[in-house]
Amino acid sequence: MVVDMCKGVQYLNEIKDSVVAVCDVVLHADAIHRGGGQIIPTARTVIYAAQLTAKPRLLEPVYLVEIQAPEQALGGIDGVLHQKRGHVFEELQRPGTPLYNIKAYLPVIESFGSEVE
Q: Which keywords label this protein (predicted)?
């Protein structure tokens, strides 16, 4: 297995938008031994070990879909979303209007061909 400094361990994907929380740390008493040269390589090794021991899984890409529609269309929209494995997580009426705001997650692969439904 090849591990590059800027790549992830699994499949050599770049690591982006990751956060590592340091819960406990013990530093050397001398300031000369507390520099980045001593801390960064150790932290890098710990993060790589965490990636290797994690249980990797593939996640299906999904779209966040926002739909504005009248009340009469809600049944049809729910039907199409459920047929395409979508998950509606918010359905609110806009105050002062007959329109509803619908927010749902829709798998990317299921979004193709939706224009005919």
A: Cytoplasm, Elongation factor, Protein biosynthesis
The amino acid occupying position 37 is G
4-17 tens-digit pLDDT: 555 555 554 566 66
Rounded-to-integer distance, Cα 36 and Cα 33, Å: 9
State the pTM of this model.
0.53
Task: Provide the edge-to-edge strand list for the sheet that holds 62-70.
Answer: 62-70, 99-107, 87-93
Q: Which two tokens stand for residue 46?
A: 């710990």
One-letter amino acid for residue 13 of the chain: N
Residue with tokens 């529609």: 69
Q: Residue with structure tokens 């997650």?
A: 105
What count of residues does the chain have?
117
